[in-house]
Specification:
The chain has 308 residues and is an alpha+beta fold. 28% of the residues lie in helices and 23% in strands. Helix 2 packs antiparallel against helix 3. Strand 15 and strand 16 form a beta hairpin. The longest helix has 20 residues. It contains 9 helices and 17 strands. Strands 1-2-5-4-3 form a 5-stranded mixed beta sheet. Strands 6-7-11 form a 3-stranded antiparallel beta sheet, covered by helices on one side.
Length: 308
């Protein structure tokens, strides 16, 4: 961090580093908004964490970022969670989950095989081992102890399988130029809501339970009742209150106000307005499940669509 950034600039570099490494992404964003010098420092810090994470799985981080940018490919799973958590105590990813569309499947797989030296150990067809109906195929690649899963969707947006994950703890993703958390209030406090898609479609088998227990062991509180994770406005009375984005029956989108987004890529300015151009289609979804009203267990519709 720079020296002209307020009281923190009076501290030694070691102490500054200790403070920053204890901050989760929302806190880093709040600190970055205090002044330009802090924005620059935090931007550099997050970009370095992103690059170091990629180096655990690829030798040429820039080439992989360019591939992500060109194809709309995203990372999710533990890699995304780790960047949202504070660096100290963050999940250490054991593999990298790469999400892409059928259109770019060959290009992404060939990149890892020809440019990164990975070998394809297994190819899993849809619904043989994975829960999500948005998943068409999974390529399981290895290079020594490094493991990469390339998840292919037949939807035109690579994000579709992420919205069908077992719980909100992993409803996060990283694009070429941004980190996105769809349920930041829960994720950054190690809380996770079980996706109603799991029990409405009878997907709560042993594999699902194993994955949920994995996040319990990582310190997450996991619940199928959103009120166990805190209060939220779930019923609109008149026009005085808006239904919370944390109500499972709210219509959500990947660009709504409840989404946490950190852009660490190039930005353009029009006057004092930051312009961010994204080619990623916008996803709209509703988790659904049982109604939140006490005593009412009627099921609400679950849906997701690509809106743009």
């Amino acid at each position: 961090m720079q020296q002209n950034n307020g009281y923190i600039g009076l501290l030694s570099t070691e102490v500054q580093t200790n403070i920053i490494e204890e901050m989760a992404l929302p806190e880093l964003m709040d600190f970055a908004n205090t002044r330009k010098e802090n924005r620059d420092g935090i931007g550099h810090y997050i970009a370095m964490r992103w690059t170091k994470l990629l180096w655990c799985f690829v030798s040429d981080a820039d080439a992989f970022i360019n591939l992500m940018d060109r194809t709309g490919t995203v990372l999710s799973g533990s890699c995304a969670v780790s960047l949202i958590q504070a660096e100290r105590g963050a999940i250490v990813p054991r593999d990298m989950d790469v999400y892409t569309t059928v259109k770019f499947e060959t290009e992404v797989v060939d990149h890892f095989k020809s440019k990164e030296g990975y070998e394809c150990m297994k190819e899993i067809e849809r619904k043989t081992e994975y829960d999500s109906s948005a998943i068409l195929k999974i390529h399981k690649l290895e290079k020594g102890e490094k493991q990469v899963d390339i998840i292919v969707t037949h939807w035109k947006c690579a994000l579709a399988p992420i919205l069908q994950f077992h719980s909100t703890a992993v409803m996060n993703y990283v694009t070429a130029w941004s980190i996105v958390c769809l349920y930041p209030r829960w994720t950054t406090t190690n809380q996770s809501f079980i996706n109603p898609h799991m029990y409405l479609e009878n997907l709560t088998h042993l594999r699902t339970l194993h994955v949920l227990m994995k996040y319990r062991r990582r310190g997450f509180t996991v619940s199928a009742d959103p009120f166990h994770l805190g209060e939220h406005v779930c019923e609109t009375r008149g026009r005085s209150k808006k239904k919370s984005g944390y109500c499972p029956h709210s219509m959500r989108s990947t660009v709504d106000n409840d989404v946490l987004i950190w852009d660490f890529g190039p930005t353009q300015m029009l006057g004092k307005t930051t312009i961010t151009c994204r080619d990623m289609p916008i996803m709209v979804w509703c988790l659904g499940g049982h109604k939140c009203m006490e005593g009412d267990k009627n099921e609400m519709i679950v849906y997701m669509i690509v809106s743009a």
